[in-house]
Amino acid sequence: MSGIEARFRLDLGGFALDAAFRLPGRGVAAIFGPSGAGKSTLLRCVAGLERAAHGYLDVNGAHWEDTNAGLFVPTHRRSLGYVLQEPSLFPHLTVRQNLRFGTIRRRADATVVDEEQAIAWLGIGNLLDRRPDRLSGGEKQRVAIARALFTGPRLLLLDEPLSGLDEASKAEILPYLDRLHRELSIPALYVSHSRGEVMRLADQVVLLEAGRVRAVGPVDEVSTLPGVVFGRPDETGAIAQAEVAEHDAEFGLTYLDFAGGRLSLPADAGLQPGNTVRVQFLARDISLTRKRPEQTSILNVLPGRVTEIRDAESTLPIVAVDVAGTLLLARITRKSLVSLALEPGVEVFAQIKGVALLT
Q1: Is 323 exposed, middle or buried (0-12, 13-18, 19+ CB in 10 A)?
Q2: Fewer CB in 10 Å around end: N or C, the chain?
Q3: Predicted pLDDT of residue 1
Q4: Does residue 153 share a domain with residue 13?
Q5: 189 and 275, same domain (yes or no)
Q6: For the chain, what percent of residues have pLDDT higher than 90?
Q7: Is the distance from CB of 81 to CB of 151 less than 8 angstroms?
Q8: Are 79 and 110 in contact (CB under 8 A)?
Q9: Greater confidence, 164 or 286?
Q10: Residues 105 and 222 in one domain
Q11: What is the pLDDT of residues 63-79, one digit of tens each?
């Protein structure tokens, strides 16, 4: 069986977890939700650190838990790599020795991970002879992730690995997590309450609210579902995959192509034609018009069709617009909604005032 199938019911007195989901057998799946939603509890259930009254877990054919069948594989026998908020490196050992400890814990049925490749993915080759007290916060967390990979896990668990870092350290480690996300062949569950991290790093998302799964699926689909609270109201928006097409030296622009058309962004020398990137369209940065504007300073204007009006009676309703198969969300005033006579099926032009690169 390929993929992750999980079902857990657990009562902790003042909190109850009742969560079930299925995920692909590869890629990063974020467990996302507000504080107190049950994210870390769910991860502990997956790890076998919390024993659910009713539990089931299968990871790419490895059957670790089934209450009905009397099956419960203890944590030390689950082929897991577990990375916590605190790196928990051995202070008296060098980075190389800490990594070697990961190989000692490797099980006979471990997934083969190329150690040199993992070191390169996480950019720690120059740190191997240092002790943890000579590392920055971001460097320690990268070493902790590499050590987890050295165990040869079938599943990598990351419990808010960036929450203990300052902004500079987060900025330092994110490009390495991007690369890990692209290269890793095993599945990873990534707990976070940061929408930005999820939008940048995750392929799938399990959205938790008060111990229940509110939504599960590809991150681009879940982020635009009606009635789903996915971060703060000002973060409402959509994401899409795009390919770098070319650079325009004359005007200092980089052009990206995605399913909905071509986007113009300020030049980014770090992007090469052919690179795949993830872009974000915030609802607050999109305005709508019934006619294509002939003279405007806004470079990104795309034709689309209204599919849905959300919260139509509110002061700032959300208009969902299908742009060649990509769903964009526009937050406009109710007066604009009425004056433009917007309703499902109406053809519009989305004027995109800002596009954010997430990778």
Answers
A1: buried
A2: N
A3: 59
A4: yes
A5: no
A6: 71
A7: yes
A8: yes
A9: 286
A10: yes
A11: 999 999 999 999 989 99
Same domain, 224 and 243: no
d(CA 146, CA 161): 13
**152-207: per-residue pLDDT in tens?**
899 999 999 998 788 888 888 888 888 888 888 889 999 998 888 899 999 999 99
Are the CB atoms for 257 and 245 separated by under 8 Å? Answer: yes
CATH code of the domain covering residue 118: 3.40.50.300
Q: Distance (Å, rounded) from C-alpha 171 to C-alpha 175?
A: 8
Report residue 300 as tokens: 């990104």
Q: Are residues 209 and 276 in the same domain?
A: no
Identity of the amino acid at 342: L
Domain span at residue 201? 4-229
CATH number at residue 284: 2.40.50.100
pLDDT at 112: 64
Q: Which of helix, strand or coil describes residue 144?
A: helix
Number of domains present in the structure of the chain: 2
pLDDT (mean) for 79-103: 89
> What are residue 81's DSSP bridge partners?
156
The answer to whether residues 136 and 88 touch, using CB atoms and an 8 Å cutoff, is no
* Euclidean distance between the first and the last CA atom of the chain, given in angstroms as a whole number: 32
